[in-house]
Amino acid sequence: MSDIQFYKRKSEVIQASQVSKETAQKVAKYFNISEDEIQKIEVGDYVVRQTNGEFQIYTKEEFDNLFEPI
Question: Whole-angstrom Cα distance, residue 47 to residue 18?
């Protein structure tokens, strides 16, 4: 038996918003993102609130590969 196994991401529902110039500050406020973190976000990125309450930033390509709309 091999030590390497296959796993898939558990099904979860997340909150996310794609950032635009017009929505950047609103998204940052909603997700309670610090000024330091805001600097890491680029237009077109997605900000995701994970099921544990923490947020993560994904590029559009990363987001599209991991999530689908419900």
Answer: 6
Extract the tokens encoding 3: 């030590």
Work out the widest C-alpha separation in the chain, in whole angstroms.
Answer: 54
User: pTM of whole model > 0.85?
Assistant: no
Distances 8 to 42, 45, 62 between C-alpha atoms, Å: 28, 24, 16
Tell which phi-psi region holds residue 41, choosing left (phi > 0), alpha (psi between -120 and 50) or beta. beta
Cβ(58)–Cβ(44) below 8 Å:
no
- Per DSSP, 30 falls in state H
Confidence band for 45, pLDDT divided at 50, 70 and 90: very high
